[in-house]
Structures are given as structure tokens and as C-alpha cells.
Amino acid sequence: MDFERYNARETEPKWRKLWDESGTFRTANEDPRPKYYVLEMFPYPSGRIHMGHVRNYTMGDVIARYKRARGFNVLHPMGWDAFGMPAENAAMQNHSHPAAWTYANIASMRGQLQSIGLSLDWSREIATCDPSYYKHQQKMFLDFLAAGLVDRKQSKVNWDPVDHTVLANEQVIEGRGWRSGALVEQRELTQWFLKISDYAEDLLRSLDDLARWPEKVRLMQANWIGRSEGLLVRFELLPTPRAGATEVEVYTTRPDTLFGAKFLAIAPDHPLAAECAETDPDLAAFIAECGHRGTSEAAVESAEKKGYYTRLKVRHPFDSNWLLPVYVANFVLMDYGTGAIFGCPAHDQRDLDFANAYGLGNTPVVCPPGVDPAAFAIAEAAYDGDGALINSRFLDGLSIEAAKEEVARRLEAHALGNRPQGKRQVNYRLRDWGISRQRYWGCPIPIIHCEACGAVPVPAGDLPVELPKDVSFEEPGNPLDRHPTWKHVACPNCAGAARRETDTMDTFVDSSWYFARFTDPWNAAAPTTAALVEQWLPVDQYIGGIEHAILHLLYARFFTRAMQATGHVGALREPFAGLFTQGMVVHETYRSGAGDWLYPADIRIESGPSGRRAFLLEGGEEAAIGAIEKMSKSKRNTVDPDEIIETYGADTARWFVLSDSPPERDVIWTEEGVQGAAKFVQRLWRLVGELVTLAAKLDAPMPADLSEPAAAIRKAVHGALIKVEEDIERLRFNRAIAQVHDLANKLSAAVGAIESAEVEPDLRYAFREGADILVLLFAPMMPHLAEECWARLGHETLISQAPWPLADRALVVEDTIALPVQVNGKKRADLVIARGAQTGAIEAAALALDAVQRALEGRAVKKIIIVPQRIVNVVV
Ligand code: ANZ
Ligand code: ZN
User: Which of 362, 510, 831, 865 could pair covalently with 128 via S-S, beta carbons 3.0-4.6 A apart?
Assistant: First the structure.
């Protein structure tokens, strides 16, 4: 027997080379077999892959290999989400060019991904920073523009007054620019928007059709779209010399609480606020102060509630003697609803915090069920639950729903000026998608600005608008803007002097259609070939991190609709039929006595009676073991995939990241765990070696009669096959792995039970079949080892191209038995029943069969004869 060790380091590259040279994973669009499209979210080329990538891409690879074996024409491509800020930051630091940095990273990461043994069709590789990709994106932008799906409007940006640059929300830290530390200002810039809000209702409703998406993600998207039904209410302003306006319109989803109103509040950038500020320098200062914070919603939410009393008052819609003060408040957003609210402190926490700060009091108007209205009071916590209306005149006693309806009905019927005072309205939180970025490393927006003609699309024949290569990052701001020549062009319309748009597109645009481009990346004339998009899409299984649950997936869903409207995707509506969000790879953290984070690679773990202790490899100093956390550079609790693959081989890494926990949960990376996986690789290799010596020849037929041990082996093998199939279909990779362990144990035991050198043909057959199936079962997870074992078993084809074995299900249901049932000697039915069933149970079950009842024709049963394990005869 051949007990030499399996050498992953030598074996793995050999098979990868063979796969590569023989084009094993190349996918032909013309292939007539049914399609299966499996896609993992493509990586940002940051420089190196991390264990999270290994886990994500291994999951996709298992599915791809399994589906290929099941006879599908599998599309499993890879590319690079290659535009973005880190490249510019690196360029600033290293005085290099973002393109050089990005392409170097792509080259090294491609090598890393290849070393994992992923069954990818590399001939379809795309990089979004490549003009051959973004050219088409520019074309689609122009198509969207022509179709009315693009808007140009003013929008706020975070402006760093020291660096003279626009900041992304993530670059605003506690109201200050991340590099300059300067107080951020909000500036209005004219920017490009994609009209995703046109599709708000469709994007929301269609979530119901995404049956193979996690419920959680659908919910997150629904919340993000944020549909609400409410009422627009116009409040009459008391005449004052301070303002020309005569009314303020608010949007409310709680018109039932109108009798609990204590104030009105308008956004700092509401026109009425500006009007008042003209004669009120303190208000002007307050408004300016509100501008010193990020534009992000989080920034708004977390800020302390502050307001400024304008000295304006409005009349309550149901009581002209009831006046409410009007505040400018920092928690009211201009771009939602009408930019103005009425505040009901008793039933809204923000309103309550505000009212408590400014001494405005509160009146509860909804009383919880079972609570005495007289005793119900609100102090620090607003009540937003269900109940009946109180303190609300004609609404008293109504439910919230009924009260909302009543208020809407009355205000719609009541006129203020010559219009109804109230109007029902559906609102969405979803805003149009601002795609303008004042950065270099992105897809240029293909527009030319002309004094005479306005914003003129770049003619399609002039695409791509390529980024200039000679740029410097020595100064802050957008290098496209500073470039001496790039932006100066002739107007395509009037040939007059004009200038290019210097903004580039948000990188989320790049990732909103790459999955469609993969279906025909060779098309130089158009972004897609619609027929091929229809052939391949939707993606059958999309896999990625939960962090993309909202933006990326929503943008991609919108983009698909916009591409449909402009003829780029045929009839496709939803891009991803199945979605899976995988858990993270986490690791213990270690700290030195001085408090510095330490790499796991520099640590030795000792397990003793007092538990696990960590020591520095060098010097032996004891290190503190800290919490298990997501692998991150900042805490140094990372393991380098390259090192793991170098030490143990890719198969071990693949096996381990899939093995210990369900794929949607985090997996804890431990040295012990990896070693366990590595040991199992050797075990499989030894077992296959033993099976080779016992197994029948490749094409030996199955003997007619099988002995008990041979039958038992077959049962175990087919049982495992059926379970692994189910587990992979349901993405329960950890359970599939447990099945392989189990089968390996059973086969080892069967091998161990062999006593004489003379092995009967039926056992030889069972070992042959068992060995082949065992290897086929772990092939999706450990493809290199599987190829080597497959060859060792005498196969001359690649296991990567071998069909999935056909399970013999009859072997597995052997706990039940089929008994023919006769009535007066004539067979009427088969009874499937537990093999060990008692006489009484068999009699009752036989009589209960429809066919038997029919044959009895109502006659009384005289007796029932049962020949055990053979036949049942009912005599009448
Ligand atoms: C009165 C009221 C009473 C409200 C109450 C809530 C609770 P959704 O569901 O997200 O649509 N609102 C409206 N426009 C706003 C803006 N521009 N900035 C900040 N807040 C705004 O939320 C609608 C509710 O959010 C509205 O209903 C309004 O406050 C507030 F017990 O009106 B409500
Ligand atoms: Zn012009």
C-alpha cells in the first residue's frame, strides 16, 4: 500500500495548470445545456485578498463545481471593482498613479485567487477602471439621459474649506474633514442624479417576488425605500412684517395626533428660514452652525436637537384661536416631505426631546389600551404604540387609524385660501441617486458644458471620454479640474469653446451592471448583447456580504430596470434570483504587555489545565488573549491566505472556511481548526490509497447478489450522496462536510473489517463505487485533492468534468418494505410499510388502502393472511 503523504504544495499547482491549459472552466455562450449563473460580489483590488474573500469565493466555487457536475452550463466569472478613493489616497502617499497602483493590485490578487483553485472563466475578466468597460457605462448614462432617467439639480455636499475639496460622508469625522481637521461646511453644487425614485414603488413591490433572498435583506431594502402614507397639511401663518409667506405646509404620517401639537419646525435650509434670517442675524448664525456637520442621515440623527424660535406663529387647522410657535430645527431635513413638521412631543421621541429642551410641554392624545386616560402622562419617553384617542375633541375614543382617516377627510374638505387644507400623499424615503463625485479615479461623466448650448452629451462616437494620464495628486481637490488641457474642448453642438464635466461617477454605478457585462464581455460595440443577457440572467445564485444588503443591491436592481427601459437587457427585470449573504471570518485578538496588537502568526498557543495561554514566538513573553473579532488590519488578528495556502494548501483552507459553522454565520479561524482540516486531507488520501487496492476495476459490473457487508457499504455511500446533494443545494456546506467525514469513517471501518487477502467481487464492487463517490463528494470543496485521488483511482478524465453520481434511492429507504396486497388471491395494491411493522399494524394499513377498499365492495373480511416480508392476502 501506498502510504506516502499527500503533498499539496506540489500537487495543487499541477492541477491548476492543467485546468488552465485545457480551458476546463471556460464557458461557451453557445452551449445548449441549461444554464446556471453563480456569482460572488467582485472584489475591490485593495492589494491582497483576505480570508473573507477566501470564504466567499469558495462558497461560490462549490456551487459552480457542483452545478457543472449536475450537467449545467455554468457561468462563474470574476472581475474587479477597480475605481475608488483608496487608489487616489495611495497615489497621494506614494506619488504614483492610481492606475499603476490598481493594475498592480489586480495582478497580485488575480494570482492569489488563482491559487485558491477557483473554477472561474478568466477569459471574461473585467476591470471597471478599464476604458473598454467604462466606455459602455458612459453610453448607458447618455441613454438614460435621453430616456429621462437622469436629472441635474442642486444638491448639498460636504465641503472642506481648507483642502478645497468635496468630502464623502465617510470622510467627515465629527463634523470635521478627515485630513485637514477643518469644520466641514455644506455647499450647494449642481450634480447629476439617476432617478431611482421613479422606481420606488416597483422596487418595493418586486421584493415580494424575490423568494430566494434572505428575509432580512428584503426588509432592509423595504425600510430603505421607506414608503409612508401621510397627509400634507397647510398651516396658516399669522401675518407679520417679518415674512412674506402666508402659510407653512407640513408632511405628517400621524395626522391623528394633531391635537397634541405643540410647535411647528422647519428645516434650516427651508426658504422661510432664509427669509426670517434676513432680518435676524442670530438666526442666520444658527443656520450656519447647522451647516457644520455631515450631510449623512447618521450625522443628523445623532446630533443634539437644537432649534431657534422665529417668532412666527401658525394657526391650528381645527381651532383658529390656537396658535403654535414656529422653530427652525436641526433635526428637520429639507429634502424629505416638505421640509417642515408639526411636533407632537407626547408621541414622537425627537419632538419630545425638543419640547423638553425648550419648555414646550406635551399633551398625550393616544392612550394605551387598559390605561386610565386621567393618569396617563408623558415625561421622558414618547409613546408611539397603539391606543385610543384622548384630549382630541371630535376624535376622542377613535382608534389611531380611524382618527387619521377622520382628520384627512375633514382637512381635505376644508379650504385654506382657495385650496383644500389637507391632501393625502404617499412619500418615499428613497432619494434620487446622486452620482457626481469630485474625484479623479472614476468613470468620467460624458457631458460637455457650453455657455450657449448648456449641458451637451458627448457624441456616442467620441466615447470613451478617457481619463487623462498626466495628473498630479500633490494638491488637494479634483485633478481633472486642475488639468491644463483635458477639460477644454469644442462644443459638439456649436463648436464654440466649452468645458468637460469634471465630475466622475459614483463607483456604485460601476458595480450596478457588471453582472450583465460578464455575459458578453467581448462586445466592443455595446454594453451588452441583450439576447445573451436574457439567456444568462438573472444570476441564479449571488453571494456576498450583508454590508451590501442595501445600496449595491438596490442600485443594481434599479439599473437593471433602467437598462431595460433603454433596451440593454431585453425583458430582464430582476438581476439576482437567489441571494446569499455569508458570515465573516473572525479570529481571537492578542495584545502584548505594552498593549500592542499582535499577529496570530507571531503567537504560540499552549493549552493547559488552566486553559489556553498565548506566548510570543520570539522572546516567549506572555500575551493577553482578547475577544474574537472580525479579522482586521487594525487589530492585527488576520491570517494571510498566502501563508495558509503555502503551509497547508488551498484545499485545506477551502475545507476549513466551510466546515465549522453554517455559511451565514461567522466562522472562527483557529490554528487547531486548520490543522484538523489538514489532517483530514491526509486521512482521505490514505483512505483512497487503501480503497484503490481493494476496489474492483473501473468498469466492473455490479454482481447480481451482494453480501450483507457489501450492501451496507453501498447503503452508506448512497446515503451520504443523497445528503451531500441536499446540503449543497441548500448551501449548507458545513453539513455536507460533516457527511463526508461520516462517510470516510464508515469506509475506513469497512476497510478495517477486511480480514483475508481474498476479497470477494461484490465487496470489491462496493469499494470501487464507494471510493469514486467519496471523491466526487468532496471534489467541489477540495478540487485539487479530488483530481489527484481520481487519477489514483484509475480515471483518465478530470474529475472537474465528471458527472455527479446518480444516487440509488431505493438503497436508502430500505427501512421500509413494499408488500403486495391481494384480495381473494388477486393482487390489488402494494403496501409500503416499516420493515419491522407488527401484524396488527400491517392488517390495518392494508385494509386502509383505497384499492383494497374498492376490491372489498363492502363485503366483510373473513381473515387476513400475512406471509412475513412477502405478501398480504385479504379473504372475504
Ligand atoms: C407629526 C407626528 C406626530 C409625526 C407623531 C410623527 C409622530 P416617515 O414615516 O419616515 O414618513 N417628518 C416629516 N418630514 C420630516 C422632515 N423633513 N424631517 C424630519 N422629520 C420629518 O416619517 C414621517 C414623520 O416624520 C412625520 O410625521 C413627521 O412627524 C416627520 F406623533 O408628524 B410626524
Ligand atoms: Zn454649444
Answer: 510
- For residue 374, report the distance from its CA to the centre of ligand 1, in Å: 27
Residues above pLDDT 90, as percent of the chain = 77
Closest CA to 300 of 332, 327, 264: 332
Nearest CA to ligand 1 atom 4: 254
Nearest ligand to the CA atom of 355: 1
What DSSP designation does 26 have?
-
Nearest to 343 by CA among 260, 286, 422, 273: 260
pLDDT at 166 > cutoff 90: no
Q: Which ligand is nearest to the CA of 493?
A: 2
- Give 175's contacts (C-beta < 8 A, 6+ positions apart): 183, 184, 292, 293, 294, 299
Instruction: Identify which ligand lies nearest to the alpha carbon of 260.
Output: 1
Q: How confident is the model over 443-452, as a mean pLDDT? A: 98
Measured in degrees and rounded to the nearest 5, phi and psi for residue 630 equal -50, 135
How far is residue 255's CA from residue 264's CA, in Å, rounded to a whole number? 14
334 CA closest ligand 1 atom index: 17
Q: Looking at the CA of residue 347, tell me the nearest atom of ligand 1.
A: 31
Please state the rounded mean pLDDT for residues 491-500: 97
Digit-coded pLDDT (tens) for 113-145: 999 999 999 999 999 999 999 999 999 999 999
Quick: pLDDT tens for 568-602.
Answer: 999 999 999 999 999 988 888 999 988 899 998 89
For residue 499, how far is its CA from the centre of ligand 2 (angstroms)? 10
Q: Which residues contact 790 (CB under 8 A, 6 or more apart)?
A: 775, 779, 797, 798, 799, 802
Q: How far is the CA of 444 from the centre of ligand 2 (A)?
A: 20
| The pLDDT value given to residue 450 | 98
If we measure between CA atoms, which residue out of 615, 733, 600, 607 comes closest to residue 669?
Answer: 600
Task: Report how far ligand 1's centroid is from the alpha carbon of 339 (Å).
Answer: 10
- DSSP for 667-693 reads EE--HHHHHHHHHHHHHHHHHHHHHHH
pLDDT at 811 (0 to 100) = 85
Residue-wise DSSP of 439-483: -SSSPBP-EEEETTTEEEEPPGGG---PPPS----SSSS-HHHH-
Which residues line ligand 1 at a C-beta cut-off of 6 Å? 226, 228, 251-254, 257, 332-333, 336-337, 339, 341-342, 344, 347-348, 427, 429
pLDDT score for 745? 98
Ligand 1, from 223, 251, 306, 366: best to mutate by most atoms within 8 Å of Cβ?
251
Percentage of the chain beyond pLDDT 70 is 98
State the distance from the centre of ligand 1 to the C-alpha of 564, rounded, in angstroms. 35
Ligand 1, atom 26, lies closest to the CA of 252
Among 508, 485, 510, CA closest to 131 = 510
Grid coordinates belonging to 62: 462549490
* Cα–Cα distance, 265 to 436 (Å, whole number): 31
Mean confidence (pLDDT) of the chain: 93
Cα separation of the two ends of the chain: 65
Residue nearest to atom 28 of ligand 1 (CA): 252
Q: Quickly state the pLDDT bin for 1 (edges 50, 70, 90).
A: very low
Q: How far is the CA of 298 from the centre of ligand 1 (A)?
A: 17
Q: How far does the centroid of ligand 2 lie from the alpha carbon of residue 490, in Å? A: 8
